[in-house]
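PROTOCOL LOG
Step 1. Enter all chains and additional molecules of the complex.
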Amino acid sequence: MSQTRSIDYSTLSLRDALDLAILVEEEAKDRYEELASQMALHHNEESARFFRFMLQVESTHEHQLLERRRKLFGNKPSSVTRTMLFDVEAPDYDEVRATMTERQALETSLRAERKAFAFFDAALKSVTDPETHAFFTELRAEEADHEAKVAERLSRLPADPLITAEDVGDEPVAH
Amino acid sequence: MTLESSVERKYLAKDFRSELKPIWCPGCGDFGVLQAVYRALAGIGRAPHEIAFVSGIGCSSRIPGYTTAYGFNSVHGRALPIAQGIKLANPELLVLVAGGDGDGFSIGGGHVPHAIRRNLDLTYIVMDNQIYGLTKGQLSPTSPRGLKTPTSEYGSFEDPVNPLLYVLAYGANFVAQGTPADMPGLAAIIEEAIRYPGFSFVNVQSPCVTYGEEEQQVKAHRAHMKTLESLGHDPADRLAAMGLAQAYGQELYTGVFYRNDTPAPTLDALARERQKTMAGQGLPRERILESFVQR
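Step 2. Run joint prediction.
Step 3. Record the structure below.
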């Protein structure tokens, strides 16, 4: 569930908005790295591979935003920190399971992209600065585009078998 | 390239993240608790080397290893006595204690009242999943009555221990509850508990994704949790806190149940004071033994 604290969207400047967007991507990138590691630990290579792919995607977005920020505002320090945002585009921890199928991994990302869309959509209602409004509108559209891409990838996957590892596998092994 | 922050924070959440990767089951509530701890510590602003994180045994007791603080994954149920020793030996350390409900309220249950009455400046975080997860799902002290597990095949006959009422009854001065379903709330509660000058207790309803019941999972928490603030609860009212704490197991209330804003001095502060007043009055080392021997 995406949440932020101590951020007043009605006074958010373009620089703050850019910094927030960068941190949203950074958080998502870190989460995908964690999820890929969790899946690899439990020998679920299919889902790990997909989460690694998403890690690359989020990393690319983060870099693009950082570059844009650098061009517009140079190295001016940021007044937004990661502690102000929680799971905006990052999949929630409770979404994943050790035995999840690749399809379920994609569905997890799909929900994360929808969550990010909803976040920018809700924030736009409070944003007053025109530049920030335009930027958030652009980000919201990008989230919709990402959702469509994940959905398209999902549509190419075969349906999950009737019996999956969840039905027959042992519980995760205590280490 | 990364962002340089102008916010006055000495440490960021990532500064408390160790290189060790958590091996909890994917989907475990403890991942959220860990994130909340990172954020709370960033908010506190103490350096990792100024923090000691002590735990017992169990899934949740792995948590110190996933931080950059000094960590001690100690003995089952004995995290509190060890943490108290650490705090007395080095009062300058910020001492966190963590463990599961089994560690805290079964094998370690006898230590909790004494930690409370001694009132050392510690923060005790119980990651309450209502089951023994690490050993594959046996009944734990906070498991609900009727729960079927490998050790209660036909359903448990026992009522659960109520951790909130337990610590309130023993006189804990700071008692709160959180859930990873509300990450900002949980991070804020842990930070407030750490800042509290004395023993502070945080019960975190942290679901076991593998052996826990469906209605105990994070999704269910999101659906039915209620903040104590929204109920208009006054955390200074201990009796009201005890009344609300009785709903443990039926309702999921989050926030601060009780906070004594005029707490007694901590034991570590009293010990330091006594050390100061008695400085120079101590016996020479060679005469200490004599004072114990009757002649």
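Step 4. Note key features.
The interface with chain B takes residues 1, 3-5, 19, 22-23, 34-35, 37-39, 41-42, 63, 66-67, 69-70, 75-83, 86-87, 92-98, 100, 171-172, 174-175 of chain A (CB under 8 Å).
The two ends of chain A are 29 Å apart (CA to CA).
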